[in-house]
Amino acid sequence: MFLHDLAISNQVSGKGVGAKMVSHLLNVAMILKFEQILLVAVQGSSLFWEKMGFTEVTDQSISATYGDGAKMMRYLL
């Protein structure tokens, strides 16, 4: 599975909504028997994804269009 985007409103930022959304995604991905979830972390979001259990993929290049500091990340199910 490739997660393209996860966005929440500024009004609920810091209230755990993003973590709940990721938890739901992980549950659904497991039920559907996906092997992994990939995403590109942008705008400094890699720390959030690491807290959610994702790890950086260093053996794969990503498009420069994602911007400086973008990281490919993976969650193995």
From TrEMBL:
InterPro entries: Acyl_CoA_acyltransferase, GNAT_dom. SUPFAM superfamilies: Acyl-CoA N-acyltransferases (Nat). It comes from the Bacteria. Signal peptide: none annotated. One of its GO terms (molecular function) is acyltransferase activity, transferring groups other than amino-acyl groups. Residues 1-77 form the N-acetyltransferase domain. This is N-acetylglutamate synthase.
